[in-house]
Amino acid sequence: METTNIKRLRDFVTAFASLLDQNPKEPEILEKGSELLRELIKTDDWLPNEFAQPHPQYYQQYLLHSDSLERFSVVSFVWGPGQTTPIHNHTVWGLVGVLRGAEFAQNYQEQEGHLLKSGNVETLTQGRVEPVSPTVGDLHKVSNAFDDQVSISIHVYGANIGAVNRSVFYEDGSSKPFISGYSNKVIPNIWDRSVELRTN
Amino acid sequence: METTNIKRLRDFVTAFASLLDQNPKEPEILEKGSELLRELIKTDDWLPNEFAQPHPQYYQQYLLHSDSLERFSVVSFVWGPGQTTPIHNHTVWGLVGVLRGAEFAQNYQEQEGHLLKSGNVETLTQGRVEPVSPTVGDLHKVSNAFDDQVSISIHVYGANIGAVNRSVFYEDGSSKPFISGYSNKVIPNIWDRSVELRTN
Ligand SMILES: [Fe+3]
Ligand SMILES: [Fe+3]
Ligand SMILES: [Mg+2]
């Protein structure tokens, strides 16, 4: 693996865990968590290449960290050119922060068994952070804004998101169960602080 | 990576985190934690090969899990034939459980600036769990009991052990600072429960 500034990810995990350790309510998590995520994605020098690889057919979801009690997880989403998610929900709070490239996000709401677009397509450029949750709006579809380059966003969720029972939705309002899993068998070791410690 | 029963490691991490979440005192951590570790090492079908590889010269320390706030860590120690640690301390509680092979453990105590052997060499066979800590005895030297095969033990510590400021000691009582770090750049993703969940 190439040398990356993995300390940024470690500091983010530590800060997010400290925030959640105070048992804040969702609005505070979304507000303070967004600040932390904005800081993380401001500089694109820390994500190991192994967790930035697109797949020719499918968008990839690389787990970067899960809390011991699955209180939160951090995931790298990698979209190849033109790739898109289905319309889906989360059932827990989440934050989406664009690290590389740009994404289109379309929100939806359910009304009398039908799905309606909620607002216009938003273009999320590098550095933007957007929340999702059953409270602030939980249904969306996210796409790579580019058809000729990879886009990557870093997501944080209030659960081990790959193991959450969720749903994908179709325009006619029908849905089916969805458990995303993860694309990776190994995650980065962000915890080796020995080089830094020996230097200090 | 080969298929392994990684669920055992995930269940161990979850159970250990739940134990620590109740803020138990050290004796309870050592007692209940030993039970959990004995259960984990009873069956040798879950450690991915990548984290069971010896090095020709050095014993290896593969991080398997670190808690978000570094409250505990789980590490796979892999000894090649005849390999040994120096005499060292931990400064935090720890549990050593032998998963594969066998190990020799010699405890030490410091007395008037000298190191004295404390008890005889113990042979830790597969399935044995031993505690360390400043309270119950923090100085020891651990060796592979075999000169012709690999031995592996699974360790749990009350910190991110690779980043702890520790010491190695010499028989004359002198010591030098020691920060172990880790041998691995990636750790196992123990959090993908999607296959199990879809089957249920
Ligand atoms: Fe989403
Ligand atoms: Fe030790
Ligand atoms: Mg918005």
Note down, in words, how this protein is organized.
Two copies of one chain form a homodimer. Chain A is an alpha+beta fold and 200 residues long. Chain A contains three helices and twelve strands, in the order ααββββββββββββα. In chain A, helix 1 packs antiparallel against helix 2 (26-41). The longest helix of chain A is centred in the N-terminal third of the chain and has 16 residues, at 26-41. Strand 12 of chain A pairs antiparallel with strand 12 of chain B. The structure holds fe (iii) ion (2 copies) and magnesium ion (MG).
Strand-helix topology:
2 copies of one chain form a homodimer.
Chain A: H1 7-21, H2 26-41, E1 60-66, E2 73-79, E3 87-88, E4 94-100, E5 102-111, E6 114-125, E7 129-132, E8 139-144, E9 151-157, E10 166-169, E11 175-178, E12 186-188, H3 194-199
Antiparallel strand pairs in A: 1-2, 2-9, 3-10, 4-7, 4-9, 5-6, 5-8, 10-11
The structure holds fe (iii) ion (FE) (2 copies) and magnesium ion.
One fe (iii) ion binds at residues 88, 90, 132, 140, 142 of chain B.
